[in-house]
Amino acid sequence: MDSKELQEEFTYYNYLDNEKWKLNLPSYEKISSEVVSDLPKVSVIIANYNNAPYLEKMLDSLVNQTIGLEKLQLLFIDDKSTDTSVEIVHQYLKKYESIEIYQLTKNTGGAHGPRNVGILNARGEFLVFLDADDWYDENALQYMSGTLEKSGDDMGFFGVVQSVNGKLSLKSKAYYFDGNKIGRAIQELPSAFYEWLGPQGIMVKRSLIEDNNLHFPCQKVADDVTFFYEAMRFSKNITQGKKLTTYLNRDDNNVGLSKTINRDFMVSWLRALAYINQTFPDDISKEKFLARRLEWLVYNFGLRRDVGYKFSLKRIRDFKISIDKYLGELKFDPTIYFRTGARKTVWKYLLIEDYRGVIRFNRWHSLRHIIKKYLGIMRREENQYFYPVLNSNIPKISINMRAIAVNLVDGQVVIQIYTNGILNYFEIRNKLHPFDRNKISSKKSSLIEYKVDIPLDLDLEMYDFWVIYNGYQEQKIERIEKFISKNSL
């Protein structure tokens, strides 16, 4: 695609730094609590469409914030829902202060519309964007705003956990694995930081948004990541806080995500990457950002079979043609940031336009994965494990890490590590409270063995044991149950 065509798309989808995005927003009807603050500390922008089952949990987390409702502006922007969403919020509005309902007169087709309405009506010194099915820790907004006030930075990133049917797991690891940081230059951020740039756990100064005319482009996906990456570029330095602030809802009864990963999803993401690529100078931050998002697209459209764009030769060819159309020839090798050999292999096939090679590799690798997962069959070569080799013509793919408990010696658990990466440390983590995590002391005793001071009387129903490697990747320790029991002492 030539530059003129790209500019036309950027204009159509309201990417550009002009006033068009404001003019294209729908009108709305506004209802407010009896008491609202003229100068709130934090504005919470909530885009909603048919999220009635989740609203009470979300709203309860807001009205009980330790910062106090008098310091908040809660903007609930409804994208013309057809369920009882507005009625539910209205009950809270009658009972609590600081709530404002903006009911759009027509549906905008995505979160971008309501979020942009929220930006135009926000009065707080700081802004956060909360998805209507997620919720906050009760101290989140006090902690986030207080941390940014002290740091003086325009943008902060804080701890997020993912909730799947009540089971919690860490999200956005790079936001807090390094501990608390202020004034951290975005050019120094690790590539893992760019794995997650959704709205959860991020706070931004309103002045940063207004001074740079920041807004969400008019498309269903990639609008939030584009917005927050642009904010990072203008902020130049960020604050990180390691405390838990936000719960990301991924329950089974929530709207299925995999089928929304379709062709429109693919093109929208590539358009967003093209905009970032053209807007900002070539540097390490942009390189890492583009690589991480490309790796994610390679995973979804080169390896996955369970998405809304049917796996086929047509899909693979279309994916590569679309990459070329929007990004052209990259000036760097993105695979240096890819996390797995399978994704690197698919990219290599795409570069030489061997689409049938991708099909063959996908078929064999999918079978390898099943054999490994359900039969436990792997191939070991010295201190590295590989997926089962089923066809000598298909590249062998290493398993990033296996960590196996093999013995108990003098009260220490002996762990064997097989990896192509770099081990950082061992960690114990509370399953119910993933942010309750602590390093475990260890000593290397051979090329692959470590003696680890794991407490032997812990309940495995409550705790997991992990190896952290390559900076931010993690692997659970296998067979630990043979040596640990709540009744062992």
UniProtKB/TrEMBL annotation:
Keywords of the record: Transferase
Gene3D superfamilies the record matches: Spore Coat Polysaccharide Biosynthesis Protein SpsA, Chain A
Glycosyltransferase 2-like domain span: 43-163
Record carries keyword Transferase: yes
Keyword Disulfide bond: no
Record-level Gene Ontology MF annotations: hexosyltransferase activity
Domain of life of the source: Bacteria
Matches recorded under Pfam families: Glycos_transf_2 (PF00535)
Name of this chain's protein: Glycosyltransferase
Source organism (scientific name): Lactococcus lactis
Taxonomy of the source species: Bacteria, Bacillati, Bacillota, Bacilli, Lactobacillales
